[in-house]
Amino acid sequence: MRSAVRRLVAGVSLAAVAFAVAAPALADDVNVGLVLPMTGPQQSTGKQEAAAAKLFMQLHGVTVAGHTIHLLLKDDGAAPDVSKRLSQDLIANDHAIALLGYGITPDALAVAPLATEAKTPVIVTAAATAMITEKSPYIARTSFTLPQASVPMADWALKNGIKKVDTLVTDYGPGIDAETWFAKEFQKGGGAVGNRLRVPLKNPDFAPVLQRVKDGKPDAVFVFVPSGFGAAFMKQFVDRGLAAAGIKLIATGDVTDDDQLDSMGDPALGVVTTHHYSADHDSPENKAFVAAFAKANGGMRPNFMAVAAYDGMDLLYRALAKAGGKTDGDSLMAAIKGQAWTSPRGPISIDPATRDIVQTIYVRKVEKKDGHLFNVEFQSIPAVKDPYKAAKAGQ
Ligand code: PHB
Hints:
By secondary structure, this protein is α/β, with parallel strands linked by helices. Helices cover 42% and strands 24% of the residues. The protein is built from 14 helices and 15 strands. Strands 7, 8, 9, 10, 11, 12, 13, 14 and 15 form a nine-stranded mixed beta sheet that branches. Helix 4 (80-92) runs parallel beside helix 5 (105-118) and helix 6 packs parallel to helix 7. The chain starts with a helix and ends with a helix.
């Protein structure tokens, strides 16, 4: 911007200067796309992430490295064909310098070829199937991977007297990752895996699979359902009498999602999960984030999706600054790799080799604090890389 103003000042008329001052950002306005499910069954992800991205800009300003950022929010309803069309439009017509969001795995997979073809950075802030970042060298991620959350859950179960586990997951990428990586780790440590049950992503009916768990009498059932389905699952778990039958519920934190946890009521008490974010995380960064998020959104509590969108914006700002204001995809991707900072969730970094997030995974238990349910962290495993990619790299 400054050079544009200088050029105009050196030019002929005062009118030109006045114009440049009145519309200072013209030459430097850049668009950033945010593609999220604002409607449909995944809309809680859209609501949380849009609020968090906007909050980041409210707190950190709209100008970075000489550019004024315009965030263009698009609703894909979590439909991959819509996600792809909107992303294409953002790239071709809006000249977006980066795309963020992607609520579910099929959406992120649909945009991957576009990212590669257009050399446009895509920061995945929600979808969490491990292999997504392998689908384009222009994809980075600030959410998590299901293997990252599931392996620590198996380790905790092994150390806490749980010997036989059924798994119950939503039948698509992240659920299959959760099932595979939990089972692998649990069996490696001497545990037994019984039924491996899956429910469809669309209109899941938990009743028949929960009956099978009940009949098989495992010590525990390990569960993954995507954000937005936790409360419905928890209700069925209680209604079907599994808790009463003494079958423990262990899960990734997607089930005890902060967006819904407080509405689940006392049946959720005591459920142990592993995840990368709790609104209850005890740090100055998180206390400030939770308070600002609540203030800007009528008291809403941020969930793990919100923190990923907040950090996605942070990553983009950091990359723009490091790239000295360059906005081409290669400069931005180079600047994204290796970024490290303290997020509201704790220390995070972007693995330069995989462009995936490295972060602390916490073991948490649902407890009541001041009359509200929270995932209270009681153990942490620092600097967890995605186990799927670490295994492939022989780490
Ligand atoms: C995904 O589709 O990758 C996904 C969605 C919601 C989650 C986790 C993963 O909570």
